[in-house]
Amino acid sequence: MELQKKLEILADAAKYDASCASSGATRKDSTSGSGIGSTGGTGICHSYAPDGRCISLLKVLLTNRCLYDCHYCINRRSSNVQRAAFAPAEVVKLTLDFYKRNYIEGLFLSSGIIRNADHTMEMVIEVARSLREDHDFRGYIHLKTIPEASVALIEKAGQLADRISINIELPSEESLKKFAPEKSLKRTRQAMGKIRHRVENAKQVRREKSPAAKKSSESKFATGQSTQIIVGADASTDQTFLKRSTDLYSNFKLKRVYYSAFSPIPHPSAILPLQAPPLIREHRLYQADWLMRFYGFQATEIVSNDLPNLDLDLDPKLSWALRNRHLFPIDLNRADKLLLYRIPGLGIRNADRILKIRRFTAIRITDLIRLRVSLKKILPFIITPDHHPNTRELDHDNLRARFAPKPKQLELKLTT
Question: Which domain covers residue 256, as residue numbers?
């Protein structure tokens, strides 16, 4: 098979893995997939480096052949898809060629499981080793590791990559047994725990003042790890997803948990849902995840046993505020930082700006306008010297309807 054809197959197969942030998008008015500015067919995606830079990556699978039979995966053993496989040298060549043409700044490499987990990891590692040692490649490398692989191989992958990831796929052991019988949540957590220990150890060595310590092999390890969870393939509630994310962030210090809405695949398994979940559910989970990571929210505040799923019509912070109306309105000139973070329509940056401004003068509505705060969303929840909302408005049942999206206009299609 020609190298270009392999690239088309294996770049397309890699698009389902969201744990490097995003995939290249194809314009709706472009059917050929070529031409100046085309983003389709080459496997180029965008991610973020440890220092915050947005970078372009070559995103491919080493092979889409796989021994596992995960029901939700298009590359599963029983799937009727066209198969292809790169030799490690071919991935190295593609990466260097794309890099020299300034198309990419790095590589995201994953793979189906061939022969066994260790054999697959050895081939993935060989790509990274050749780039680093044979070609002195200093670009960004993200490697997808396999929890069933030996500790020594995961250690080697971490020494060569800038970031590594292990996909947890589904949030519970019960779901994995049903949809991915070859995988185990327990094994994945064990692998994540070892990676966390190695990442923290490398950071500690790099913080030492000794130049010799910083150059030692102990200091060379990936800066962190991430994972991906599939949403909508099983019956798990948003509460289950957010509890699992809390567990991963607190116990393994993950950089990101990526939520990927289940997408129906050709020749699907009979136990899969017939339709994909609404994409807004994936979006709401990302918003809730953001609240937990940066705004001080706990998963138990966002979802509960009584309300196990997120409100699809409202963002999670606004939904929480409407359920806790007794806490509002909040005085912008007296509230502490964490309370400011909980006001709908007020982000972290503007909350921090308000804390600085009010040291010298009282915050007024004109200040919020200058900060470009959404007045429609924030006004019912705040007090300023020139604004005192009617408390009856906060208690009114129609307050939610004020923020909910308007119903879509239905179209009547006439046929002849």
Answer: 3-296
